[in-house]
Write a structure and sequence with these properties.
The chain has 452 residues and is mainly alpha-helical. The protein has 18 helices and 4 strands. The relative contact order is 0.21. The model has no long low-confidence stretch (mean pLDDT 87).
Length: 452
C-alpha cells in the first residue's frame, strides 16, 4: 500500500529511509514548538494555546503536502513571519492579535486562489535555471548560518555585528554549547562519509545526549535569563482547554481604528514574504534533491503550493501566524527523503508533540545545529552548476546567494536575484532571455521596497 501510494521504488527510496528522514526533519524543526508560543505570547496570546495551534497547523500542512503532492516538505508557522506578526503588527502598529490572525487567514485564501489559477506555479517556472541554483546554494548558507547561531558558534558583536564565540568566556553556557555542536558536526560528517544511514539524525541525538551528560557533570549550567535551559526532557500534561482562547478568534476581530489601507498593507506584507519564502524553499530543496525535471520545473507543484496555502488559512483559524514550507525540510532530504511518506512521519510527530511537547522542546539548538550546518554544505554544492563564465548568469545568482544569509530572508534573496537578473541582462543586450513574467516580478519587487 505504501509503495503504491508514495511510489517509493520509482523515487529510489525505502520505508526505512523515509521514516528516518521524516524524524530528522521533525527534530530540526522542533525548536518552533518552543519559539512560536514564546513569540506570539508577546502579542497577548496564550502560550499553551499557541503551542497546540502550532502542532495542529504543522500537522495539517505537512500531511496535506504528503497526501496532495507526495513531497518530503514539512510545514510549520514560519520564523520571521511570526516575529512580524508579534512585534510589528501587534507591537509597533498596535493592532490586536485577532486582526493579525484575520490578515493571515485572508492571505491564505488569496494563496489558495493563486495556486488554483496557476499564478504561483507560473512564478516558480519563470525563475531562470541559474537563479534556481543560486537559491539552492543561498538556502544552504542561510540554514548553516541558522545552525551556527543556534549553536552559539556565531554570536552578536556590537562593532562587527557578528563574531565567533569566545569559548573561554561563558564557558558553562555559550562555550560548551559551541564545542558540543562542533563535536556533533564531526560525528555527523564522519558517519555520512562512512555511509551510515540516518547519520544526520544520529548526530542530533548524540549531541543532545552529550549535552545531558555535560549538564549532569556540572559542565553545562542552566541560565534561563540568557536562554540556556535544562537539557533534560520533562513530562506534564498539556491543558487542551486553552485552545478555545484562540480557535476561530480571527472571525471575531474588531477592525475599529485599523483602516482599510493599513490592513491591506499588513495583508500584502504577509502575502509577499510567505509567497517567496515558499517558492524559494521549494526551488532550493527540490533542486538539491534532484526533483526538478529536464525543464527545471517541479512536477506536482500546484498541489504542493495548494497544501501550503491551505495550511496558512487553517493555522490562522486554529490560532497561529503564517504556516509555511520549512527550509529545514532540506535536512530530511539530506537524509534521503524523496516522497511524502517522510512528511507523514513528520506530521504525525507534530501531532504527538501536543502530548509530549516537553520532550521535543527540550531539544537544544546546539543539538540540531550540526544537521543544519552539514545540510548547508550539501546544498551549497549547487554553486558548481552555475556558469561563472557568463557574468549575466553568475552575478544574479551570486546576489541571490549573498542576500539570503545576510538579509536573513529567502524572499530577499529571490528579490535581489530577480531584480539584478533583469537589469543586467537588459542593459547588456540580452533582453531576449528575460521573460515577461520576470519583468513583472522585478517591478513588483522594486515597488515592495518603496511601499512596504
Amino acid at each position: 500500500m505504501l509503495e503504491k501510494f508514495f511510489k517509493l521504488k520509482e523515487n529510489g527510496t525505502t520505508v526505512k529511509t523515509e521514516v528516518i528522514a521524516g524524524i530528522t526533519t521533525f527534530m530540526t524543526m522542533a525548536y518552533i514548538l518552543a519559539v512560536n508560543p514564546n513569540m506570539l505570547s508577546a502579542a497577548g496570546m496564550d502560550s499553551t494555546a499557541v503551542l497546540i495551534a502550532t502542532c495542529l497547523a504543522s500537522f495539517i500542512g505537512t500531511m496535506a503536502m504528503a497526501l496532495l503532492a507526495n513531497y518530503p516538505f514539512a510545514l510549520a508557522p514560519g520564523m520571521g513571519l511570526n516575529a512580524y506578526f508579534a512585534y510589528t503588527v501587534c507591537g509597533n502598529m498596535g493592532y490586536s492579535w485577532k486582526v493579525a490572525l484575520m490578515a493571515v487567514f485572508l492571505e491564505g485564501i488569496v494563496f489558495i486562489v493563486l495556486s488554483l489559477t496557476s499564478v504561483r506555479e507560473a512564478i516558480f517556472n519563470a525563475i531562470p535555471s541559474t537563479l534556481k541554483k543560486g537559491v539552492s546554494a543561498g538556502i544552504g548558507l542561510f540554514i548553516a548560518f541558522i545552525g551556527l547561531q543556534g549553536a552559539h558558534i556565531i554570536v552578536n558583536d556590537d562593532s562587527t555585528l557578528l563574531t565567533y564565540c569566545k569559548f573561554a568566556d561563558n564557558w558553562h553556557t555559550q562555550g560548551i554549547c559551541a564545542v558540543l555542536a562542533l563535536i556533533g558536526l564531526f560525528i555527523t560528517v564522519i558517519l555520512y562519509i562512512k555511509g551510515f544511514k540516518g547519520s544526520i539524525l544520529i548526530g542530533i541525538i548524540a549531541t543532545w545526549i552529550l549535552g545531558m551528560i555535560c549538564q549532569a557533570a556540572g559542565v553545562y549550567h542552566i541560565d534561563a535569563k540568557a536562554g540556556f535551559y535544562s537539557l533534560y526532557p520533562t513530562m506534564h500534561m498539556t491543558d487542551f482547554s486553552k485552545i478555545t482562547t484562540t480557535f476561530g478568534q480571527c472571525f471575531t476581530a474588531d477592525f475599529k481604528g485599523v483602516g482599510v489601507f493599513n490592513f491591506i498593507v499588513v495583508l500584502c506584507s504577509f502575502l509577499f514574504v510567505d509567497m517567496f519564502d515558499t517558492i524559494g524553499t521549494l526551488v532550493g530543496v527540490s533542486s538539491k534533491a534532484g526533483m526538478l525535471d529536464e525543464n527545471e520545473k517541479l512536477p506536482n507543484i500546484k498541489p504542493a503550493l495548494l497544501a501550503d496555502a491551505i495550511a496558512t488559512s487553517a493555522g490562522a483559524i486554529i490560532g497561529t501566524s503564517t504556516t509555511t514550507t520549512y527550509v529545514e525540510s532540506s535536512a530530511g532530504v539530506g537524509a534521503g527523503a524523496r516522497t511524502g511518506l517522510a512528511s507523514v512521519v513528520t506530521a504525525v510527530l507534530f501531532l504527538l508533540a501536543i502530548f509530549f511537547a516537553p520532550i521535543f522542546t527540550a531539544i537544544p539548538g546546539f543539538a540540531t545545529a550540526p544537521a543544519l550546518i552539514f545540510v548547508g554544505f550539501l546544498m551549497i554544492s549547487s554553486v558548481a552548476q552555475i556558469d561563472f563564465n557568463d557574468l549575466t548568469e553568475a552575478v544574479p545568482a551570486y546576489m541571490t546567494i549573498l542576500a539570503m544569509p545576510f538579509a536573513y530572508s529567502i524572499a530577499e534573496g529571490i528579490s535581489l536575484g530577480v531584480i539584478s537578473y533583469v537589469i543586467i541582462n537588459v542593459i547588456c543586450g540580452k533582453a531576449k532571455k528575460v521573460t515577461p513574467l520576470m519583468y513583472i516580478l522585478a517591478v513588483l519587487f522594486v515597488c515592495k521596497y518603496i511601499f512596504l
